[in-house]
Amino acid sequence: MVTHPPLLSLDGVTKTFPNGTVALAGVDLDLRAGRVHGLLGANGAGKSTLIKILSGALPASGGAIRWHGEAVRWTRPRHPREAGVATIYQHIPLVPTLSALENILLDERGTWRNRTADRERIGAIVSTLGHPFDLNTPVAQLPIGARQMVAIAQALAGGAELVVMDEPTASLAGDERQTVYRTIRRLAYDEGKAILFVSHFLDEIMALTDEVTVLRDGRAVLHAETDTLDEARIAEAIAGRAVAAIARPDQARSLGEPRLEVQDLRSPGKLSPVSFTLHTGEVLGIAGVLGSGRSELMHAVFGSDPDARGQVLLDGETVGRYPDEAVAAGLALVPEDRAEQGYVPQFSLAENIALARVSQRGGAFIDAASERADAKAAIDRLSIKAPGGDALVTELSGGNAQKVVVAKWLTDDTRVLLLDEPTAGIDIGARTDILKLVRALADGGLPVMLVSSEFEELLAICDRILVMRDGRMIGQADPYATSETDLTLMTGGTTDVAAAGANA
Ligand SMILES: Nc1ncnc2c1ncn2[C@@H]1O[C@H](COP(=O)(O)OP(=O)(O)OP(=O)(O)O)[C@@H](O)[C@H]1O
To answer: Which residues line ligand 1 (CB under 6 A)?
Structure first.
């Protein structure tokens, strides 16, 4: 194999935040043309900080960055962009009302435009991606996988030689992930781009990358060619300890008493009528791809969808159809969109955790000592990486902020736990801890509804799985008789649920 000199190298790069947190403690990293480099690390390991430095959003505190062998100091986003570095974030900042073409050209606004030439140039770039989409369609109407392609085309239109991708597949379903992988391979191997690919998914790192760097506590603790590694070795480097995957139990657990009765719950245009019962000690999984109605179902149960109609009863009592009534009744929802719905950024970790308790007790006062004790318990229980309960949520890494949202609802007043993608963006070690915790809470009697795009997780801890497609519940799968592939086929619409051996 011919090794190119690095396109970009980091040499002892450090970053210390004003509050004293050392996010990067001296990182070396070489990125080369024609190679896909995977970057992994636990929540808070320093991945986002590194990406922000590469994209000019944050200055490094020390160390050297070389681009084509020349030392550079990038202090503004336009510096790396103009040099040839494009960064694609998990939450794709596209303008939904503009067409794909207009989005791709957004960075070039203000320059002289020749529509036909633009269209031809962008059309040529899009054809290199191997996943055609209509340039005139407003982005809001494109499937999510195609939107990711728009973001990639936007990066390439700016002439990027290095494409940095921050968890680009986090919210994508199986087929859409495959599409992104194919495109990344084309970019690296046919177009000679360097790719830095950040992910929490070990299987995709193994399948997609040529080499891997693992960060832990701001240091690169492992760097190796991917084909010399296996998932267990990477997981151990991430967590700093051996991580055992959660094993599926051999036989079904018996279900307890019926607790939550959902009757004829529906929401026009989002959810067709659905009825089911959740039992004591049951983890009820909801499997479905993005847009299948899985989150809509959770919001309808919780009362946070004002258009939803139907009945929800807990222990025979009707639960009011507004979130505050649901909370007062003991329902707790950890929503998928945590940044918008899950926490108050201006509040400390302890204050955010206390919020749930206050609302569950109808606004009752919580004294400072219990607030501190609750925060400490949550930090320990979910291994939240934070200087302490006083830290602002905005000072935590993305995954640790998510853990705060999960933690805040784990109270004695929670009688039914609704979890929408609780492990999205959470590292392998903590992911296993959260799943074990959910299972243990259920084994202690708590009924849980769990939405997860990771079918492996559903199969590992659920007692039953409801399958959703196009806003409808299309059947029920038995985790003991269903494989991940079966669930992928059912949720993707390729297989009839009954045909896959599940009970409708
Ligand atoms: N603005 C900030 N002020 C203070 N500390 C910060 C700030 N942003 C991040 N940190 C801290 O820097 C460390 C690295 O965080 P970073 O966001 O880079 O982690 P990460 O690897 O991207 O994690 P995740 O997988 O959770 O996104 C963490 O300890 C975090 O709390």
So the answer is: 17, 19, 21, 23, 41, 43-49, 385, 395-400
